[in-house]
Write a structure and sequence with these properties.
pyruvate-formate lyase- activating enzyme, globular, 7-stranded mixed beta sheet
Amino acid sequence: MDLVIIAPGNNKVIYQSLARTYAALEPPLWAGLLANAIRKKNFQVAIIDQEALGLSSDGVVSEALEYHPQLVAIVVYGQQPSASTQNMTMAQEICEKFYDAKSNVKTILLGVHPSALPEQTLQESKVDFVCQGEGLQTIETLLTLDNCEDGVSLQKVPGLWFRDGKQLAHTTPAPLIPQTELATVLPGVAWDLLPMKQYRAHNWHCFENIAERMPYASIYTSLGCPFQCSFCCINAPFEKHRLRCWNPHFVIQELEILARDYNIKNLKIADEMFVLNEKHVLTLCDLIIERGYDFNIWAYARVDTVKDIFLEKMRKAGVRWLCLGIESKSKYVRDGVEKGRYTHDNIYQTVRKIQNSGINVLGNYIFGLPDDTYESMQDNLDMALELNCEWANFYCAMAYPGSKLYSLAIAQGWQLPRNWHDFSQHSIEMLPLPTQALSAGEIISFRDQAWDIYFKNPRYLDMVRSKFGEETYLHVLDMTTIKLNRKYCVPIKQAPAATV
């Protein structure tokens, strides 16, 4: 085997008890994209999806070594755009186990986090190489080298960080794959190398059929995002803030494979920003409608990107959920993180417009953004309760590596989580940023109490029962019995309240 690609994961640590039933288990798209692209170059490739296969780090390494690979690539991404860092703990553990095995196999780390912090990642990991960038050209060039120990040869590998003697060395990142070449350079996912029967949709994604969360798949139709929100790190491997779309006629071929060969109905469009490019979205929707697929789709959108022309087409194509990054009711708070291009009236109008089209709304809210106060967080909760979206994610503001907030936190000397997995929103030792008005512990407390208020709100539960039925209603009630353990949570001076 030339290459073994490992998708690391430890959901029990990252999501605590939510991992058992409520969290999704998604196919590792970047691992699948890289595997398919590399084998098109006539290399032999295998994928090990740790979470889907239920393997320990020892089990991952043992299985990988059975292939006798030339190179092992640990691809560090996550189930949502900012979730790479939380998988670094397991990725580094796997690297250490390869090192301890004293094999001749070379290892490389790549993904959002390694691209954001390539030098630090190399310094603190028992790994041979770190990739800065998308990864394809880096891996392909490494596989063609006769000697991966030679510093002169390694200088030919784009986007590579490595040890040259006692010194750290690096090359210039590879150029981004042009949009016009995506379908030939990244020609889809190696679905046949993934355990497709193991993947499970988010619970809310299947509220209309809560017992049918499998089979499940996710897919990219575009890469990157043109926006520059200060709390976001997703463009770390891409350097530039831009959107590159696969041709919809290529995407429909991938969807045909999923529908025909894997009986996929529940589908996530994993694009960092799907509802943006009008021609791309409408053309793809038309192609799905023409073929009559029975998909249950969810995708990301922004309040200021949802046009009327999108909604009817998306609903007919099977889009049942749109995830809106609402973040905060306060435009002042959103301005502080470069996400203030709309008013709170726009938020209400957009949510109702989507719901009136027959599409459910997942509202994302963030507590503890730099300009937040107790009053602005309570206003945010009030808005969430008033909007009463079919689902809500409540986050704390985290300084993810690769984001402007991370650079600010480092410059200011603010305390950050002790372990990489504690950048997870649901981990025990999760530690968000403080604000001038609130400590990190108070923000955690507010967030967790706000979540409890929202999902136990009679108005929300009545809506769930009437819209999705008794089984889903009971599922939500059961979910609210789960309590996250939090090390740094402290009582807030004034508890959040259900004032709406």
